[in-house]
Amino acid sequence: MNEITIGIPRALLYYKYHVLWENFFQELGINLIISPKTNKEIIEKGSSYVVDEACLSLKIFMGHVAYLQDKCDYLFIPRFACLKEKEKLCTNFLALYDLVHNSFPHLKLLNFNVDKEKKEEQIDGLLEIATSLGFSYLHALRAIEKAKDKEEEYYQKKENNLKNKLLNQDLKIMVVAHPYNLYDEFIGKPIINYLEKENIKVITSDIKQKKINTKGISDTLYWTYNKELISFINTYKDQVDGIILISTFPCGPDSLANELIIRKVKNIPISYIVVDNNSSDTGLITRLESFIDIIKLKGGKLNA
Asked: Full-prediction pTM beyond 0.85?
């Protein structure tokens, strides 16, 4: 079998599933290329492939696709629609394959559907991709098992790290956002880096939860990833001094979910930061400084 290279855009669901995806393909012996961290050039390039009204996170994704288009044999673009019955994901995840296919018709795409209501699972999709590339089913199954073990180790370490931070007596701020916003170099990383530089313990919302609890905030919200964020807030809000919500303009699900959070989560300072193409570090730092000052002025939620 000839060596092939698969490209994975460092955007959107990469930040949630990268450990599983990367280890799976590496166990198969496939060469991987991951696009670099987001920069202005990637954002500008991605913006040229979508309508102005598209959210910044989607523009960034298309920019990463553009970066990879001449650097790999295949581009990995799965389609995610539904992870739980009677729940949905943002339509961008459902449309990604079609957006990329129409914008870059010359690219070879590796794709599968994830739709719980149609009994289409991610693991089955990965196995199908492996066998379509010429690997035996048994080889692919072993690669999946090893990749799942690595993913479990990764999230267990994150959970252990979270527990250690919560035990610390320093100021603690919960940063709530989808992983692709939390860890993107243009969106969430500047916020996390600044807080850590100020010796604040940052509690990030990308911890796997066994049970989803949205009580008191919303009983009817049906966007799975937003429900996970709300559940994280419900679980840990009494152990932190403040909450920062991060979203990209103009995300519809986030705008509704975050408004519910602001209205219904009481007795704790909350800052809502919306990042767009024109956001500046100067303005961001000013807002963060003010938010930290407010928390300290109140003596911290835990000390109030």
From this structure: yes
Q: Would 156 be classed as within a structural domain?
A: no
The confidence band for 2, taking pLDDT boundaries of 50, 70 and 90, is: low
pLDDT tens-digit series, residues 252-266: 999 999 999 999 999
| 45 and 114 fall within a common domain | yes
**What's the pLDDT score for residue 279?**
79
CATH of the domain at 202: 3.40.50.11890
Count: domains in the chain: 2
Q: If you ran DSSP here, which 8-state letter would residue 125 be given?
A: H
Burial class (CB in 10 A: 0-12, 13-18, 19+), 266: exposed
H helices of the chain, where? Answer: 14-27, 40-47, 56-68, 91-103, 122-132, 137-167, 179-182, 189-197, 224-236, 252-264, 281-297
The answer to whether residue 82 is domain-embedded is: yes
